[in-house]
Specification:
- It is a single chain.
- The chain has about 375 residues and is of the alpha/beta class.
- Helix content is about 40%, strand content about 15%.
- The protein is built from 13 helices and 12 strands.
- It has helices at about 5-15, 15-25, 30-45, 50-55, 75-90, 105-115, 130-135, 160-175, 190-205, 220-235, 250-260, 280, 295-310, and strands at about 65-70, 95-100, 120-125, 145, 155-160, 180-185, 210-215, 240-245, 270-275, 290, 315-320, 325.
- Strands 2-1-3-4-5-11 form a 6-stranded parallel β-sheet, with helices on both faces. A 6-stranded mixed β-sheet has the order 7-6-8-9-10-12, with helices on both faces.
- Helix 12 (about 280) links the parallel strand 9 and strand 10.
- Helix 1 (about 5-15) packs across helix 2.
- The longest helix has 18 residues, at about 295-310.
- It is elongated, with a radius of gyration of 27 Å.
- The relative contact order is 0.12.
- Mean pLDDT is about 85; it is low at about 55-60 and about 340-370.
């Protein structure tokens, strides 16, 4: 069936095309009689206004693009939900692309966003972001980084202090009695991974405990189960007694495998994850995790983008602090002598200085499961 045009509606109603346009877009400019004639013609012809075309002519698509690294990771699912709900409340749609850790897939989504002339872009980039920023800057399309800070402060961003998060995880394992900490994570082309490693390594060095790196090229439960089985097979004397996995899905896989191989968690090995996804607290052994406020990060990113569209794009960066959620996958940490038992304890967060330069893995550490 051919699409009914505004010209046909005008002819059927016996009015001008501008009257039809005003009836659709600025009804206060049209007399009640003319508005009624236009409404009747629309109903009789079955005309459907081309909203998308009108918005593009007005210079706004009322849609934003969002590309995340891996939507199967509950962290990114929550970020996307926060961004989508915020955009919806302000009259915008979100077109979501799942890069799935692929630079090529990310590129295809970004090209789609550009062709569709979307109003703005939210992105958790797989690799670097400078080329992406320049790509959209040429068209006047603002970009907000998610889970990534821009060192040059050339575009808005929402991120977490991952160095602090890595330090908090390691310090908790040490305080719970662990003397050999293993960091499981990667790839280290991702800045968040480097920062988490840097914080963990610095805390281990400060505490004078053993540290080893088990580098991965991805983060998923299957790989976690594989690594957990390898760790469980090590002699007890060579086995790390504290594990910090760079995200929760990896940590849950590790913990599942350890337990199935007869390694007790946390009595033999303490395990800490990262992100604090819903499944962390629901695991058979509830997982201690460094919490990222994922939903709030999505809300903040969408708010930065839409505020910039409304008020003019002025770059702003928001950095959240992590929070350690202590559960049964790590041993209880005795309270300091000054703390009165039976009274609610406050979480005290200390921002420690640690440089990301310390986070670059050495070749001897990479992929090592032994001392």
């Amino acid at each position: 069936m051919a699409e009914i045009s505004i010209r046909e509606v005008a002819a059927h109603a016996g009015v001008s095309m501008s009257t039809v346009s005003n009836a659709l877009n600025r009804p206060e400019r049209v007399s009640p009689r003319s508005a009624a004639r236009v409404a009747t013609a629309i109903a009789e012809l079955g005309y459907v206004p081309n909203t998308a075309a009108r918005q593009l002519r007005a210079g706004r698509s009322q849609a934003i693009g969002m590309a995340v690294m891996n939507i199967t990771n509950p962290f990114f699912a929550e970020v996307a939900l926060g961004a989508e709900e915020t955009a919806h409340e302000r009259g915008y749609a979100v077109i979501l692309g799942n890069s799935y850790d692929s630079v090529e897939r990310e590129r295809r989504y970004l090209e789609l966003f550009e062709r569709q002339r979307l109003d703005g872009v939210l992105i958790a980039p797989v690799r670097g972001h400078d080329a992406i920023r320049r790509q959209f800057e040429k068209r006047g399309i603002p970009v907000v980084l998610i889970d990534r800070a821009d060192p040059q402060d050339l575009c808005s961003s929402v991120s977490l202090d991952d160095v602090l998060g890595g330090r908090m995880a390691c310090e908790h394992l040490v305080a719970s009695g662990c003397r050999e900490i293993a960091f499981l994570g990667g790839p280290f082309v991702v800045p968040q991974m480097r920062d988490r490693l840097a914080g963990c390594r610095a805390a281990a060095a400060d505490a004078g405990v053993g540290f080893r790196l088990i580098e991965t090229d991805t983060l998923n439960p299957g790989l976690g189960r594989h690594l957990g089985a390898q760790i469980a097979d090590l002699p007890v004397a060579d086995r790390p007694d504290g594990i910090f996995a760079a995200n929760d899905v990896l940590a849950l896989g590790v913990m599942q495998s350890l337990i199935s191989h007869g390694v007790r968690v946390p009595e033999d090995v303490g395990v800490v994850g990262y992100d604090d996804i819903d499944f962390a607290a629901a695991s058979i052994v509830p997982l201690t995790s460094v919490r990222q406020p994922s939903y709030s990060m999505g809300v903040a990113a969408a708010t930065l983008l839409l505020d910039g569209l409304q008020n003019g794009d002025n770059h702003r960066s928001i950095r959240f602090d992590p929070e350690l959620m202590v559960r049964q996958s790590t041993k209880a940490v005795p309270p300091p002598p000054s703390v009165v038992t039976g009274r609610a304890r406050k979480t005290i967060r200390t921002r420690a200085s640690a440089t990301t330069a310390a986070g670059t893995p050495t070749s001897e550490e990479a992929h090592a499961l032994r001392r």
